[in-house]
Amino acid sequence: MWEQKLKLYDQLIDKCPRFERKGKTVPYTSANGHMFSLLNKEGEIGMRFSKPVQEKYIEEFGSSKFRSHGAEMRGYVLIPDHMLDDLDKLSEYLNESYDYVMSLDPK
After folding, report:
1. How far apart are CA 31 and CA 37, in angstroms?
2. Virtual torsion, Cα 80, 14, 42, 59, nearest 10 deg
3. Distance CA 65, CA 48 (A)
4. What is the structure's pLDDT at 3?
5. Which of 16, 71, 74, 66 is nearest to 39 (CA)?
6. By CB neighbour count within 10 A (0-12 exposed, 13-18 middle, 19+ buried), where does 49 fall?
7. In this structure, are residues 21 and 27 in contact, taking their beta carbons and an 8 Å threshold?
8. Per-residue model confidence as pLDDT tens digits over 22-43
9. Is 59 exposed, middle or buried (0-12, 13-18, 19+ CB in 10 A)?
10. Which residues of the chain have pLDDT under 70?
11. Treating both helix axes as pointing N-terminal to C-terminal, what angle do 51-61 and 87-102 enclose, rounded to 10 degrees?
12. In 62-96, which positions are buried (b, 16+ CB within 10 angstroms) versus exposed (e)?
């Protein structure tokens, strides 16, 4: 199951030419010194957004905050499985997440 999700995560990132996947055991994307998406060991995808956007998307997606390694990831929204069928739409959200971290001060 995790391998299938990794393949899907890679396909999603391939739709976004401005950045690439990093990490071997914990796949993620980062830019400007900030991580903005992550595939956890449960095979769940999380994306980082501003606080108002997080709240909007949690409600809109019927989702929750994202957890990894038993901890809540501040700023991250869990991408529900029902959204994984539309990688084109999901790539819009991932690009939005990228734009958000690029607006932050570099680390």
Report:
1. 10
2. -20
3. 10
4. 95
5. 66
6. buried
7. yes
8. 998 899 999 999 999 999 999 9
9. exposed
10. none
11. 170
12. ebeebebeeeebebbbbbeeebbeebeebbebbeb
- pTM for this entry: 0.97
Of 55, 21, 52, 27, nearest in space to 41 by CA: 27
Is 28:60 a contact under the CB 8 Å cutoff? no
Supply the CATH number for residue 30's domain: 3.30.1460.30
Beta-carbon contacts of 16 under 8 Å, excluding residues fewer than 6 positions away, are 91, 94, 95, 98
Q: Does residue 30 form part of some domain?
A: yes
Q: Which amino acid is at 9?
A: Y
Could you tell me if residue 107 is inside a domain? no
Domain that holds residue 23: 2-102
What residues pair up with 79 in beta bridges, in sequence order?
45
